[in-house]
Amino acid sequence: MKRKLLSILVMAACAQAGAQVTDAMIANDANTPEDVLSWGMGTQGQRFSTLTDVNAKTIGRLVPVWSMSFGGEKQRGQESQPLVHNGKMFVTASYSRIFALDAKTGQKLWKYEHRLPEGIMPCCDVINRGAALYDNLVIFGTLDAQLVALDQTTGKVVWREKIDDYSAGYSYSAAPLIAEGLLITGLSGGEFGVVGRVEARDPKTGKMVWSRPTVEGHMGFLNGKENGITGTTNATWPGETWKTGGATPWLGGTYDAKTGLAYFGTGNPGPWNSHVRKGDNLYSASTIAIDVKTGKIVWHYQNTPNDGWDYDGVNEFITFDMDGKRMGAKADRNGFFYVNDAATGKLVNAFPFVKKTTWASSIDLKTGRPVYIDENRPGDPTAGDGKKGKTAFAAPGFLGGKNQMPMAYSPKTGLFYVPTNEWFMDIWNEPIAYKKGAAYLGAGFTIKPLFEDHIGSLRAIDPKTGKVAWEVKNTAPLWGGVMTTSDLVFWGTPEGFLKAADAKTGKVVWEFQTGSGIVAPPITWKQDGVQYVSVVSGWGGAVPLWGGEVAKKVNFLEQGGAVWTFKLLK
Ligand code: CA
Ligand code: CA
Predict the structure, then answer these.
(1) Which bin fits 392, alpha (ψ -120 to 50), beta or left (φ > 0)?
(2) Class level of CATH domain 36-568
(3) Which pLDDT does position 106 carry in this prediction?
């Protein structure tokens, strides 16, 4: 009797331990295909699964097993990557909602709907990109710039922390990063003259550990004490301009245990009119590498110094091995693909990954700086009538050669799978003054397609040579992310298809219509011996809101909000 009780207690303790997400589990996430604990399917963000059951030979048997609707009237853009742990799926949805589902059946376990105030100011739809798991908690951020931690089992709120003032334009839409026992987040609001920063909190309590502003001149903090100013005040920003400098790391970050560094990309400097802030405007439109122990910037690489096109450099920095060294790759909104040394930031390679880049002809590998084509910078309004500067034709358009949709890397092929878009804009500058909570652009623009037959293109890119191994064109702009497993690549389209192609040749071998546009990255995992593939479907995001001529081309697409899950038919 006693022995039986003891064994029940031991079993209960084991089940409890299995339910808790530990630092070791997160560090090893990419090597444990039975769960998906982080955005990027591993903190390096490679979105590669070691599973092999679903492959080019078996893909014909991949069929839907369940679909679950987010319900209600709150449709709009669904950019969320689900997480899977302990038989449960955690998935966020538009309007700051999160659901827990039975991962095998799709049955709803609980949902949490954040009460949003009037007057939130998300720039680019009411989206959310996913949650983070730690201990018994699931943590996500909200459009009114808060972080909420809920009990994974009950969905009850355990803690809630304010990031900043939503009425000043701050918001939050990224999936938080967990690394070395810290919850690491950026923030959004770069179109409103807010000041970007990366913050680390205790994931169990929400208590702040460090804060690192991403605009030069602002003070960082560690354990409540001053921890040094970011950069050197006024070195690259004139006058008071750094006080409304933007540079928001709104896509969140990646982490590599080998370097101990968290990598965050930063958004545009404020305002868009570059003539009022002559200088490089550090650390806007950059990759920054932060030592997670000290909260200090170890290196930075600026993709677009003195950005004048809204080329947010937020894109994910994915670390990988090349020639025996740890590197990081980033396909920047500005149309260039960069490879930097992950430990030092030294530029190793850079090449365009779209057909046309008008703002710079190339990136000088010696200096690390773009070779600008000066006459293609939108003009200074004070040079003419004071109301409107010279209009520039600019490619890529501000929605970017690539935007928020994360690419994937396969160590098997050595290729990056990059969702790209080909478009341009007419852009001009106008005078602007900062006003709290108002758009801080000082620019006007219209986005147009470059080609008649396609805007999107999924491209397989060799980071060493810059060669495009293959591409699959898409009529509408691609806005969802990519996942690779075995010899396949998966991605979604605004037209509603989840597609799979051969990773080596690009031959499309499978597709399924999800009923609304896909603007989110797929995942895969294995549970009780069965490999599953999941993706969130629901058209929206920045394109229909900001896309100009392009928005007219996609206005027939219907909204939605659902998770789809697939497995192989026996
Ligand atoms: Ca895993
Ligand atoms: Ca921006």
Answers:
(1) beta
(2) mainly beta
(3) 98
Closest-approaching ligand to the CA atom of 542: 2
Strand order through the sheet with 253-256: 253-256, 261-265, 286-291, 296-302
CA 248 distance to own-chain centroid: 12
How far is Cα 180 from Cα 209, in angstroms, rounded to an integer?
12
Catalytic residue among 29, 307, 310, 332: 310
CA distances from 38 to 5, 27, 52, 91, 169 (A): 36, 10, 20, 12, 27
Q: Are 539 and 515 a contacting pair, CB within 8 Å? A: no
- Write phi, then psi, for 166 (nearest 5 degrees): -65, -25
Q: How far is the CA of 263 from the centre of ligand 1 (A)?
A: 20
Q: Which ligand is nearest to the CA of 441?
A: 2
Dist. CA 83 → ligand 1 center (Å): 9
State the Cα–Cα distance between residues 101 and 122, nearest whole angstrom.
Answer: 27
Residues with C-beta atoms within 5 A of ion ligand 2: 190, 267-268, 310, 312
Secondary structure of residue 298 in the 3-state scheme: strand
Ligand 1: distance of its center to the CA of 382 in Å?
55
Provide φ and ψ at 562, rounded to 5°: -155, 155
Q: CA-to-CA distance for 267 and 314, rounded, in angstroms?
A: 5
Sheet holding 336-341, edge to edge: 318-322, 325-331, 336-341, 347-352
The 97-102 sheet, strands edge to edge: 83-85, 88-93, 97-102, 108-113
310 assigned to active site? yes
Q: Would you give the DSSP letter of residue 150? A: E
Contacts of 9 (CB under 8 A, 6+ apart): none
The number of angstroms, rounded, from the C-alpha of 364 to the middle of its chain's C-alpha atoms is 27
Report how far residue 218's alpha carbon sits from residue 199's, in angstroms, rounded to the nearest whole number.
14
Domain residue spans of the chain: 36-568
Residue 115 has which token pair? 């009460």
> What burial class does residue 545 get, using C-beta atoms within 10 Å of its C-beta: 0-12 exposed, 13-18 middle, 19+ buried?
middle
DSSP letter, residue 279:
S
First-to-final CA distance of the chain: 43
**C-beta separation of 63 from 106 below 8 A:** no
Q: Alpha carbon of 293 to those of 162, 180, 184: distances in Å?
A: 23, 8, 12
pLDDT tens across 177-229, in order? 999 999 999 999 999 999 999 999 999 999 999 999 999 999 999 999 999 99
C-alpha of residue 15 to centroid of ligand 1, in Å: 18
Res. 4: pLDDT tops 70:
no
Q: What is the DSSP letter of 142?
A: -
Comparing 130 with 549, which gets the higher pLDDT? 130
Give me the residues paired with residue 347 across strands: 340
Q: How many helices (H) and strands (E) does the chain have?
A: 4, 40
